[in-house]
Design goal:
The complex is a heterotrimer. By secondary structure, chain A is mostly helical. Helices cover 78% and strands 0% of the residues of chain A. Chain A has one domain: Orthogonal Bundle (MetI-like fold), CATH 1.10.3720.10. Chain C has helices spanning 2-9, 11-40, 60-67, 69-103, 106-121, 124-135, 140-147, 161-185, 189-197, 202-230, 234-239, 247-256, 261-286. Classes of the chains: A mainly alpha, B alpha+beta, C mainly alpha. At the A-C interface, helix 1, helix 3, helix 4, helix 5 and helix 6 of A face helix 1, helix 2, helix 4, helix 5 and helix 6 of C. Chain C: The chain crosses the membrane at residues 12-31, 79-101, 113-137, 157-181, 217-239, 264-286.
Amino acid sequence: MSSQRFLAFGLRFYVVIFFIYLFLPLIIMAAATFNDSRFPTVTPWDGTTLRWFGELAADRGMWQALANSLIVATGVLVVAVPIGIATALFLNTVTSRAKPFLYALILSPLLTPGVIIGISTLIFWRQFGVSGGIFLTVLGQATFIAAYVMLMVTARLQRFDRTMERAALDLGASQWQMFRRILLPYLKPALYSAAVIAFLQSFENYNTTLFVVGYDTTLTVYIASKVRTGLTPAVNALGLILILVTVLFAAIYELKRRREAARAVQGV
Amino acid sequence: MDGSVRLDEVVMRFGDFTAIEKTSLAIGSGEFFSFLGPSGCGKTTLLNIVSGFLVPSEGQVYIGDEPMAGVPVNRRPTAMIFQNLALFPLMTVFENIEFGLEVRGVDKRKRREVSERLLALVALEGSGPKMVTELSGGQKQRVAIARALAVEPRVLLLDEPLSALDLKLRQHMRTELKAIQRKTGITFIYITHDQGEALNMSDRVAVMSAGRIQQVADPMTLYRQPATGFVAAFVGENNRLQARVIDCEGERVRLDGGALGELAGRASGSARLSNGEAAVLFVRPEHLRPVEPQASGPKLEGEIEAVHFEGAWVMLETRLVASGEKLRVQLGHELSRSQANTLSVGQRLVFGFDPADAVVLPDDGSPVVDEETGEVVEGRPAAAGGAHV
Amino acid sequence: MFRQLRARFGGPLAMAIVTLLGIWLIVMVTLPQLQMIEYSLRPNLLPAQIGGPDDRLTLANYATLFNNDIHRTIFFKTIWSSVLVTLLTLAVSYPLAWYLAKVATPRQAALCILLLIIPFWINEILRTYSWFIILAFRGPLNEVLMMLGLIDRPIRFLSGNGGVMVGMVYAYILFMVFPVYNAIESLDDNQVRAARDLGAGTVRTHRRIVIPHAKPGIATGCIMTFMLAAGSYAVPALLGSPGSRWFTQIIYNWFFEGGNWNQGAAYAFLLLVLCIGFMSLIMKVFKVGLGDIGK
């Protein structure tokens, strides 16, 4: 039927358009970095320049925000990863009728809008005299990032053969030795992935951060505020750099993940 | 080194379910001891009790005459070879073997000495630096053994270690395990559902069913003098005929086989048989041979239903003309060539046997393994409890 | 439960696990939420008035929303727009999910998925910003449209809801594509072939065979998209205008411009209730359970 063929062609056409739709804005934004025009755009093209990179490098506010983002991300790693591991171990070990309820509670931060997490964190710590800043940002972000860590660790933990724990104990290891020498090394790949994801999630978070960041800024908050006040293509320059770094990161991560998946098939 | 193991009135319950009925057992130091029984009989549970993974609901475990109550797994003088081996996949062979020593704080040089020596013992020299994932099934098996031996246990517990291996490898490993046991003098407690293995390797075997030990004895005794109907039917092949005792004279028992006529056999087991009591006569296929219809002694007429040629012998599946029960007969060199050529389905033959070869046991309803399905069928409640030594 | 932990990990480690889990669930997840609800039920008081006669539980903060015309309008507009965004995202994502799951070869699908994921590693702010540039009054979209002669004067895309909704669809599309893709993927190819073989056209095949099977995925995608849209701050902030404020922006104002945290807490709680309500509604309509919402 030719209508079938038309639809099939239409679908492929649609997919192509879709990907153009997906990438075009980013390409345009990247291109605007090099346009010598005060307002970031590609039309009209006023000449090619690199001066916006210079302006970006000179922006003290940006460097401070970047530093804050890194500090917060590190803090989130320190808080969320142990919590995520602990939760995964807990869920893997315990059987109880309360488990479904606990599981729902554990996943709830993932389903709660970011702004609500930010608001509740802000309100809670006010009574202790702690107001918005790096500390609250770390806590607010870690609240839901810990759940992501838990999911990633659990995925790996579920494939663990618990007979090995018994073997370790049988050979004389204490429970701590078993954990440190058998279980933890097994979890390492998941821990690395979880750490990377946690770091990135923290770095790019906006909704929650906005409410708990106080007078400090993180990079995302900084970019957003720049767009609304004081917009120049320097923002595009920052965007382009971030895109390149992210794509590099993503490529490395994906390659590593595929290699891990291939190794999993061999039964490690 | 005292590697004796003693179970003192051990009971294991999981909720309402009793996995191990009251059991007492003594295993000698340096003995190769097997637990044999169908799936679910409780042999793995007993192994877990000895190793410390399970705490018995009642009773005591002694290893080397020391009570093991309150002693956790990682402090017992036992080591276990798991069914799926449980080698540590992220470690090399060396690291696996040395693990038990490492957690005890033994220094690196000494550890390496021990693992090199053990690798030689299990014929895997040079494989030390390899990752365990690179090894074949048989090689992994040997690493598991070396790893367990490294901690110098007094008792080695083996949980169906050969079940995952192919036939040739299994036979090879049987010999190796036996050799290692003799060389090291460690008590081996071996569990399996494969009677060939158990009978072949062990000094003594405990036959188990449904949480109870039916009999503990050396392989030959188990085969020739089974103590219960279960052991008689489970170990080796056996034909099972129901009859009623007429009278006993010493060991010899005369039985009324109903439609099968008068039968005779040898009393086994510790129970005394009384006249008129219901009993079971067990006669093995290899003890039956064709006789003339007028010959003296017990006779069974069977109609051949199938002929299985097995090379060195012929297995006949027959059905008793008088009662319709099945009778399996194994014929070998006592067949003349002409007789062998004429065996055919539908043919009727009369089989006889020497009463000294047939075992008579009380019909106490002990569980029996169904020939066709391989399932354990509970008879009426068993008479004596499994308290044997 | 603690006994099981201790049996496996030993006393100290088990304590550490329970402590970490407790801190997280109690101090970071539950108590702040409860506190937020409590705040929403109290009036905004000066420090001096706390503990005094005015400090009592009241629903006044909630009443404010319904009495304030502007806020009420914005609240309902947010709901309505989020629903539209969800439907739009679903419409845009469905063909792509279908293509990935059933039409593309495994290699094409793998490549497409990789291409899909890359933009989503990039910051939501930057992606929204890129639309800002396109939709700008003097931006490329206007230029191209004028060049093609379709319009005479540039359109103000960035005023009103249009720009915001387009931005949201762009921002959250992955959260719809993946669940729907996963759901369609599990459909047996032969069912589609059978339907075609029996004479069903494309529309009917999808309506009667594919969509019912993909329901859990569609439900998951809708829930996630709606919640992201309703709770979105970045997109309306960057792409919106004063005339098209989003509910989250009002909440923000209560905290950082009005200084009335109690009021803000009430509005925030309403947003939470809205999201949970939508989620329950979808789960009921589509008959899916919490377990189906797997990422």
